Amino acid sequence: MTAKTYDIIIIGAGIVGLATAYKLLEKNKGLSIAVLDKENRVGRHQTGNNSGVIHSGIYYKPEGMRAKNNREGYQMLIDFCQKENISYDICGKIIVATEKHQLPTLDVILDRGKQNGLENLKMLEIDELKAIEPHVGGLKGIWVPQAGIVDFPAVNNTYAKRIQEWGADIFLNEKVIKIENNGSVCQIITENKTYSSKLMVNCAGLYSDKIAEFTHPKKLGMKILPFRGEYYKLRPEKEYLVKNLIYPAPDPSFPWLGVHFTRMIHGGIEAGPNAVLAFRREGYKKMDINIPELFETITYPGFRKMATKFWRQGMDEYRRSFFKSAFTKALQTLLPELQEDDLITGGAGVRALACGEDGSLLDDYIFMDDKNVVNVCNAPSPAATSSLSIGNYIAEVVLAKMK
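Given the sequence above, the corresponding structure tokens read:
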């Protein structure tokens, strides 16, 4: 008996992979689609370990794909949650400058938000900040009414449920170890069996570059570097200190937003994250180490160049990782009343940071498009918020290849 050849196989059952399958089947229910994932459940990594923020799109360059997809995907996500009765809350957030040198950054962010179509943004003086978040410290801030919170694992699980109802297959515990592509059929070889498809989409997240190397005929010119973000939580009796979302004015030269406070959709307040190099691609704990992966990271020329540029910030991040007092001090710039004993250890996530060979940080979406393969090599935040828009874009590319 000849094994089934699917129209499309998607590698990765995170929120981008499943949103892509959802959009493909929404456009054409007759497609035969399979989604492969090496884990025993969908959304195991970046999708299942993020802070659950619905991003407004205020930070992103208006001409970039992140901004475009956030604009489109934001409303698509809200509509989906309403349709599927998934809990969400458009609670708004404040972005706070705590030092004078950050004030020009607020002006840039406010202007960028307006360029991205956000309405009712407002620059706030300290008394206005405290009217929203009574315990916050700072000089000035921005009110962003579009920001919210949601249960992204629930969104992802619902994508999975719907595509299976529409006839898609999801195969778990299927780690891809090799791909053979003759230009018309892809043979996707896992540790257990071989799958065949006419087209393949790589949405492998932290391993997107490794999967891309199987099919992309040329050098990628980038590598995924894993950075762990560690969180604390406020003790329940201290949750009154934070009403919704409190963010710092970001350092424009640094790729992370800085430690912040986030109310979670099912209760509780997260504080963090920091950002430290993980010693394996899925290293959620300080001592999670994969020697070959770590060696590959530290010998990559792009990492060494990036580390040379950001080593001071990197040392500060590690200090916050190993010393709770340092983490607390960083949080106190936003919440002066906070004490070290108010924090309890929370969870951690690992971000896939795309780095060029020249040490540049690639902060926009990267798609590498071959004849019958689409590699999603970089889908940074706000990919979860934008998942349906990204999925729609990929679906259109894939369907065009099928004509």
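The chain is about 30% helix and 25% strand. Try to locate this feature in the token string yourself.
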